[in-house]
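Archive transcription. Copying these from loose printouts into the bound notebook so they stop getting lost. Printout 1 of 2:
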Amino acid sequence: MYDSAIYEKLTNFCAYQERCTADVLEKLYKLKVPKDDFDNYIPKLKDENFLNEERYVKAFISAHSKKKWGKTKIRSALSGKRIDSGLIKKYLDLIEQDDYDAQIKELLQKKWNSIRTGSPKEKKNKLIRFLLSKGFEMGKVMAAVKEMEV
């Protein structure tokens, strides 16, 4: 069954900011729409371009790169939303490598200056853990830390 009031709520929900299918499904649950009726809304939202996974992935990666998230954390968050891994890879590969490396170095320098206690080895370990928690790849983190030590 299709309810125009619910559809209007969903269009407003999708128009407010980019959404993925998982977000809309969650909204349908909150609106207490029967599961059998979900297929009445999702395709219509996609047909009318309110819901576009590719557009969502681009916006998500852009926003979270600005928040200084690494590729690993972004990939994990998008996978949690059941986004196609090919789509994730396609847009993660578009991140400018020089900007990405500069971001790692910037975070590394800020964090290094903020760590007040511990031996140099302890500070280095804290630094590595911090960058890994931000979602940066181990190889990139280790290279940046090694470069900083020189």
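Printout 2 of 2:
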Amino acid sequence: MIYLRLIAESFRFAWQALRANLLRTILSLLGVTIGIFAIISVFTLVDSLERNVRESMSFIGDKVIYVQKWPWSFGSNYPWWKYFQRPEPNMREFRILERQLTNDAGAAIFADKNNNTFKQGSNSYSDAILFGTTYEYNKVAEVPIETGRYFAPQEVDAARNVIIIGQEVGQKLFPFSSPLGQEVKVRGRKFVVIGVMEKQGESMFGLPNFDQMGIVPYGAFAKMFDVGPEGIGSTIAVKGREDDPGLLELEYEIQGLMRNIRGLRPRQEDNFALNRPEMATQAIGGFFEVVGLAGWVIGGFAILVGGFGIANIMFVSVKERTNIIGIQKSLGAKNYFILFQFLFESVFLSLIGGGIGILLVFLLTLIPQEMMKISLSASNILLGLGVSAVIGMLSGIIPAVLAANLDPVLAIRAK
């Protein structure tokens, strides 16, 4: 009970001090507000960016290994001359992997071509992506169908002219009717629309965009384009199992099978690349760490200034209330009561500054964004309040100790 009374009494003193010197308090808390705003806004942007990148990468799958000609690289000095004579993965290699792999959860081969024009009557959609793949691609990566359906195995095996289109394509070609069951012409060939994908919105870092895409069976794609060594390259995608952490078993198995298929000797280097989405995530993660560190540095200086401001308020508050402290101690108030009273006031003031900074970040998240959805997470809110509380405690500890150790007789005589 005594602790609840202590908290209530401390809160009352803190509120009275804030109201009595409102302008001074606001100016002093400005540093904490700016600091917390800088830190939390940076972390919110980083979290939102990372989440949107992961959502954009859902098209290329999670826990997937890609067998390709070119290795992925995210730095400078890419040794392209080592790779340009490598053969492209092909359907024969895919069929062998599909039959012989034991550590996979599904495999598919796909190829894509940009800058296509889809037509329907007098309507057309330019700069579309045409994507050809085999049936099990929906096991490798997410293909979110909003209306209609995914391919049937017979449609893919027979290379039928059926297509799944993105939202933007559907709205452009069929503004006043449902696309399902209607025909779309691509490079002079007619395709029947069997599905429309969910709206994705603009993707990050130039990754494939569902909204601007049409997906067809791999065989139908190969009829329209030269897929092979001299034409469009293909990619074999293999989905890993949940019981294979790090996909090490799957990677070793794919590597062994591909070397055997291509007849490589033991001392010969691989003439294929095994790429993973995690490689892109790790490269982007380094950028996130730098941005986060910059946020801490910028916000740290502002918080440091705010901390000195709060410490100044507390020293002034101790000076102004020295007489009251003497009366409280003469009436039996313990040192910890005085200490807690001023420490609580310091933390309370700092939390107000931090709370205003978090509120400003929240208001920024309400601004609609086409490119990226920004949201303030509970963890970032707790981080902001926690940093504010720590700054308040550090700023108020010395004034609180000085107040708690005042001699009651001298304190009562103070003017």
